[in-house]
Target: Glycoside hydrolase family 5 domain-containing protein
Amino acid sequence: MAFLQRFAIVLFSIFWLAATAKPPKRNTKISIVGEQFCINGKPTFKGRVWNGYKIEGLLPNSRMVQATFDDRNPETRTQWAYPDTKQWDADRNTNEFLAAMPVWKQHGLLAFTLNLQGGSPQGYSKDQPWHNSAFNEDGSWNPYYWNRLKKILDRADELGMIAIVGFFYFGQDERLKDETAIIRAVDNATDWLLEAGYQNVLIEINNECNIRYDHAILQPERVHELMQRVKRKKVKGRRLLVSTSYGGGAIPKENVVREADFLLLHGNGVSDPAKIVDMVNKTRAVAGYRPMPIVFNEDDHFNFEKPMNNFVAATSVYASWGFFDYRMKDEGFDEGYQSVPVNWQISSPRKRGFFEKLKEITGL
Model:
């Protein structure tokens, strides 16, 4: 045990020195001008209009939060075995994610959501006995997770893609022992991203802040405190853009709207596209709102073959939309981007439906 602890400390030290060395020149920089996202100073999809709807400045995205997934619980780890090898392999998962990224970009996908505590590997789940967290209980971080994250962020930077990086997920936030650990985790993650020079990153403090978080500072009334903390941290005058998200159908609260650089909505449970439009309109009416991007970064409604669906509805009111796909009952390995193990390729009719509609809307 002593040897393993010493080895972990050495590995951590090596990784930390590498991560905090002078960062390489980065290729991709995300910024916000009013309601528009810009990459390297230019609005996304510059000049693009589709069916009369303005596409310029939008950030279509997909929920890909299991890109760095692992399970530290030996009792549940075997659940995630690949069908061919009958074993779980975290490195294989990340490597296959990396291999799929250029294909997504070719179809117009500019952004994807990651999370350092993942999401439910079953799609939806009441209990979460697995242990998937980039953070240790004291808020320090696990170098194995961060090594995988670095590979993804580096590749995204090369491809001109944006990562919406979430820090916490309900059902896993209790892996951190107290509020001090949560704050330390936010500081550590923010410092690392800044010092590594990433400019293709947007921060989501936690996924669905109004759903079952153990720590009060991650709940709706106080989560803005962590957003303020991220905003105060700067390297060479540069800071990270930050927000947080709410559960399906919920409208952001004033405390978040006033602090956020962009606003994150979820369409889960919203099957009527007209209600997507209503969500966006209500969000723009919240006290403290000023022109800023509105982004759905989770919605499990599809119907991409229909003239009106949640994707189109969000686009019609100038809000970016994000695909949330999980493996449903009796579906196989090729289905779903949320369910572990993941086939990260465009490997199912549902995935193809999204990417074909995305390509049509973006004109790529």
In short: The longest strand covers residues 162-169. The longest helix spans residues 2-20.
